[in-house]
Amino acid sequence: MSDPAMIDLSSALTMATATDPGMVRSHNEDSLAAEPQIGLAVLADGMGGYNAGEVASGIAVALIREEVRKALAHPEPPGQDTASGVTRAERILREQSTNANASIFQSAQTQPQYAGMGTTLVAALFSDNRITVAHIGDSRLYRLRGDSFEQITRDHSLLQEQIDSGMISKEDARHSMNKNLVTRALGVDPDVETEVHSYEVLPRDTYLLCSDGLSDMIPEAEIHSTLETLKANLQLAADQLVQTANDYGGRDNISVVLIHVNDQFAAETGWVSRFMSWLK
Amino acid sequence: MAKLIISVDGQVLDEVELVKERTTIGRKPHNDVRIENLAVSGEHAAIVTILNDSFLEDLGSTNGTTVNGHPIKKHFLQNNDVVEIGKYKLKYINEKASQAGSGDFEKTMILRPAGGATSTSTATSTRIGDPTATRPGGLSSDPTATAPAPLPTLAPGRSIGSPGGLPTTVTGSSGLPPLPVGVTSAQPLPAAPQPAAIQILTGPSAGKELDLVKNLTTLGKPGVQVAVITKRPHGFFITHVEGANYPSVNGLPLDAQPRRLNDHDIIELAGVKMEFFHKPG
Predict the structure, then answer these.
(1) Which pTM was predicted?
(2) Domains of chain A as residue ranges with CATH
């Protein structure tokens, strides 16, 4: 697996995962992957009858993990493409979301037992002191930086649209009966619009990727305090979050990927950045 | 499908299903829910229903609208809310909410733009007559009254209750104090175990007591040795968080797994002994 040309981020990033069917569902339709070496975390919450949901989320996660690994193995500068203004990480995640969409859509079209399946997606790729996040649907990325805990992604859901239009307050939204309606998903249409953004990363940041089985069950302040209290033991924090969601009723599958940034991870491409990292 | 159960003085008069995107309530005949009572404004209130959620809005009525006793302008209806208009009670029932325990509820579904919040426009017009109730008081016009404020838009191309052609005059008597709408606690909290506390037995803080009220209570020094006590519905558990040494309970060191704490267990952490004990609930 180790490619000498590739940067190994496993000392800069610690990752932990936990997933559980919850207290109500008989099986787990969530899928996830954490690859600290290549700086990738992927989480998908599948939907569809019988076991089609886990097929859809499984395809998305497996395909993105393999293809991102392949794409990163190509020696290529990670910075911005001057013509398009798009970074390599952004381009890779967008391309692989599109591929995953096509692959799930095709399986759903050709195999009757998978008709109508789909999945949400949140994928984070760490590169050159930045995090690039791609998402579709209501699986989320949160960031804990210092004392501030923030939701970075905005759901593609009916409820989020209602919050945006001022129709319902964020507090009232917790009571909504429309929580489960996503307006975008991977694999349900021939095309999908993936939302992709990049942000600066600081050492000691902690990132959380989660399915709605976590964020719908636990109040945000309690997710925050759990991360704050237990981030020194990332696996324990992940397990504790799943357990708390179950203690609140665990009505849906619960999945968590946690990433703690131990150190900088500048890409060593030119003499400038090499010099800068030498200074630090 | 959500519905309203309309009653007066405890007598159920009617049941109205909220099938339309916008259900109007008022005294005039064109309303979907017509209440023929002088205390009710011509166009009194409206309920906007989007899939499984309904929003109630007072349309600048003379005598106001209350929900569970609180005057409202705009309110996100919750299952079993009681809307009061004059002496009429409209109880909001959301069957989706009452089925919340069943497994299929909350299964994530894709909402296609085309198949969105389409609602059939079958007009279920309801008429409620109360000819005995004549209540002329409070209908006198007041020149100082202000016009109803424009209402917020809902989504592109749609708006909640545009107050077009409101026939009623807003009177001073409707100026109810703007009480905050009571929002109940966001989550059904998990059941709490019997209260418990920790008493420090050795070291400089000996004798100190620490109530375990939070869901997570950390003990120890960050970077050296830390353990966490988690409060769960069925009891308290201690888990090692960080540090080369693991804490012990009754002389036995913990492993990576949480350990349940029993009354009068002795915890030893970073050379300090402490006792876990239950308090009278």
Answers:
(1) 0.74
(2) 13-268 (3.60.40.10)
